[in-house]
Structure formats: structure tokens, C-alpha cells
# Entry
Amino acid sequence: MIDPLLSLAFGIQSNKGVYALLLGSGVSRAAQIPTGWEIVLDLIDKLAHMLGEQPDPDPVQWYRVKFGEEPDYSKLLDAVAKSREERQQLLATYFEPTAEEREEGLKLPTDAHRAIATLVARGYVRVIVTTNFDRLIERAIEDAGVTPAVISTPDAVEGALPLVHQRCCVIKVHGDYLDTRIKNTPVELASYDDRVNHLLDRIFDEFGCVVCGWSAQWDDALCTAIERCRNRRFTTYWAVRGTVGDRADRLVKARAGMRIPIKDADIFFTELSEKVISLEEMQQPHPLSVTAAAATVKRLLANDAHLIRLHDLVQEETERAFASLQPVFGALVSNGNAKEKVQKTLSEFRARMEVLRVIGMYGAFWGKSQHKHLFPAIIQRLATDPAAGESGVHLKESVRAIPSIIMLYTMGLAACASNNLEMLVSLLVNPILERLGKVQPYLMAVDWEEVQQWFKLLPEHERNHFPASEWLFAECREILRPAIPDDQAYDRLFDRFEAIRSLVYLDFEYKGRFPENADRMWLLPGRFIYRWGGRLMYDEDVPLDKLKTDVHLAKLLTSRGLFGGDPAFFGVAVDRFRDCVASMAIRYR
# Structure
């Protein structure tokens, strides 16, 4: 049997705006907002003490004997507080938080109010009927970016737009706490103005209903309004904490409703909101444009509460890209690496990775500590050979690594652009690959020289010393333009990224024991070698000097165990690296 909460979530998600909410005092109970009757009892107590009498043990009976009538909210307020200002101040003590209460989270919108506001903001709920006097639901909805129309008097019914034209309407059938005409006593709750009854008849006839926090024990007029409605176009769901009273039980049966056992209103509405949103996301088509992908990932990155949804988005798009790349690799295996195939293959890579690259770019640019494992995992996944260990003809691992290299450059450059060094270090250090039973850091597992030779098959790069670097420089420019709009800045950041990548590779290769003879070291190829190396030969200022004094970078790298875990040795390593760059620049002149 389907969980009634899940059934309700399906109903709300598939019928936007069709379900109205009926909320009672139980929804505001966690905020320690008193019920209307509790306020009446407290006012009786205050009045009795003003008269020098004790209302115990039965305040209501004391009032009847003393004044010869049933307690009346309006009369009690007038007796206890004479002026309008005094009445407002008195009412504020019941409904508005003091500084201390605010710090404790009391008399503020609860999780239930916030979850309802989320459903309103997404268009799933447009009509809310409540017996509460407080303004917590209105405040929560306003915080969610929607200004609700509020109907708290019969006069307001006449001036309101039709419900179908309102984004959200809150109907306060017992009034608002700042209006002394609110309904409290059994006599007051026995009937409504005809204008209110006509509005309720429309709501219960045209909408489904979700009831929570309302006992139906005292509100005769509201119960009668529900009983008057004979149509059952949409289901009535009644959230039940424990058992329901006889009156509520009759209403559930009269409406052929479903009961939903709950622990409390906060948990119920939070779970309902989460399920509705999950169903929405499951049915949404994948973003078809890089603009949509960019907006989505930026929104999720901005709020730590969205970490799980961000993880799912990144993983889902990574797997989508991974699956779509396999036929491209398959074509290369069957047709070889002929020159005429290289350009087409790179175009296929670009098209199938476009959304993932945008997600990765913004992730590396804005990502925080909690994201440092999420985005490097993209590189590791794309470099995986799904046929590893199987017999047959295999694509060269260097070619299979190209999509992951494109992602490494896209995200690495974005991290450099925002000086997100923690993310940059994670991108270079975290990914690992298993090759021939040996687990290695990603930078070590890729045959970078073979990658260079593959890119030399491109006619425009066949004479370049570092064709992969030159192609990646041009390829990454436009996708990174939102993060690096200035072309000169892009030049510098590209060189900085490649230099740091090569420096990390050297430490992996030599495990901190760099040869003193620079000619004996081999750097990862990159265009920075002849761009920086030429300047080194003439003792000109180069960014390597700034790299050596980058204390934050040194600390991050050594904290990961690189350079012997010693920031001082990092400076020595950069000096050796500098010598090697100068030496290689001479070779490639």
C-alpha cells in the first residue's frame, strides 16, 4: 500500500495549486504561540487580579458569576487595556517575540511555516485557510519572496481578487490578533458571516484539502462549512498526531479522506515539501543549455543546504557525459587514429561535455572546502576505462584521458581565476587511476608525451612543440570568458595553472628528491615553458618568483604531503623548477 504522505506528495506535485491547506493552532504550537482560548483565560486572570480577586480554579466560571455572561475577547481586552495603543502592546506579548525569545527561536516561523512557504513559492499551494490569529505563515511566505493576500474580515472577502487570480491567499477565518473582532468563544465560533461562508464553500468545493493542527472540536462554523460540501473532486488528507476526536473522525469519513499519521507539524510539512520538490526534479528535463546549467550550479553552490542536490547534479551529469563519450572512443578503436578523425573526435568531445564543463567551471570557481572532493572526482571518472582488464583491442590510455584533461584544464583555470587554491590543489592531487594493477596519482598515470603526439595530428598544430597545450589554450578561452573576461589575464592564469601542474608532477615523479642537474629533469609540457623560459634566460621578472613566495600555496601543497611536508623545501623545489624551465626553453628555441 502506498504511503499516504507519498500519495499526497504525488497529488500536490502533479496538480499545482489544486490543494488548499487548513491549518490550526497545532502548526504554531512549536513557536509557543498561545491559542485564542488560552489568551481569553489569561485575560480573565489579568482582569481578576486587577479587581483583587482569584479566578481559580475555574476562570470561566468566575467570569460568568462576576459579569453574568460568557467571556468575550473584545470586552476583556477593553477591560484590561483601555486605549488602542495599550491593546496592541498587550497583544504583542502573546504573538510577537521579545529579544530573548527571538534568540531562542520562539514566536518565529517554524520549520512547518518555512516548508509551506517553499510550496507556495514554487506554485504548489495558493490557498491557505487558518484558524490562527498569528502572522507566522504570512511572514514565512514573504521571506520566500511572495506577498500573500490576507483575508481576515468579511469586508476583506468582498475586496479580494478571485482565488484563481491570486498567487497566494491566506484566509484567517477567526481573524487577526490586531483586530479585536477575532472569534474565540463557542458562541462566536458557531457561525460565520455569509460572505465568509460563500468563500469557504468555493474552497472546499473546488480544491483538495490538507488539514493539519486542527482538532475540529470547537469550530462549529468551520465544521459545518466542510460538511456542506458534497463534491469530492480532490482528496482530503488529514494529518493526525495520535488519535482524532469524534467530530474530526466524522469529517474525515464525510469527505472520504485519508489520514496521515505524523509526529508533529514541522516534520510533516518538511517531509512533504522535500518529497514534492524531489518529484519535481525527477520529472524535469535535463538543462538543455549551458545557461540553465550555469544558473543551476551557481544557485546550489550558494547555499550549503543544497550540498546533496549539488552532489546529485554533478554525479548525474558526469555519468551522462561518461556514457555519451563511450561511442566516440569506440569509433576510434575501430577506425584508428587517422588525421581526419582527430578533429571530428575533438568536436564530439566538446559537444558531449559542454554542460559538464560549465558545471565544473563554476564549481571550481566558487567551490568551498566541502566541495573539494566533488569536482576532482569528475576527472577521475572520465579517465576510467570501462573495459579495463578485458581482452580485445583497446584504445590508447592517453587518448582516453583527453576528456579528463579537458576537464582538468577547465576547472583548474577557473580555480586559478578565483585564487581558489584549495580547490586547485585538490584537482591536481585527489584524482587517482589504476593502470596495470598499479594505483597512481592522475598526473602520473597519464602519458603526457603520447597526448602531445596525438594532438600533433591536427594540421594547425603539427609543428608546435606543445600542441596539446596550445589547443587547450584556445579551446578553454571562450568557456572561461565569464570567469576571466580579460585576455591578458587569461594568458597569465593559463601559464600559472600549467606551471603549478608541472611543479606538482615533478614532486610526484621525484618524491621530493629533485636532481641537481636541471637537464636530467623532465617537465610536463606546456606553453609556459618557452613563454617564461625565454624571459628567464635574460633574467627578466617572471611569475615563478611570485610562485616561490606564495605562502598559502606552499602550505596547502605541503599539508597534503608534497615537498616532504616542508614549506621551506617548497622554495627550494621552485628554484630547481626554475632551472629546469630555463633549460627546456633553450631546447625548444
Observations:
- Confidence is low (pLDDT under 50) at residues 389-394.
- The CA atoms of residues 159 and 176 lie 17 Å apart.
- The first strand starts at residue 19 and ends at 23.
- Residues 307-335 form the longest helix (29 residues).
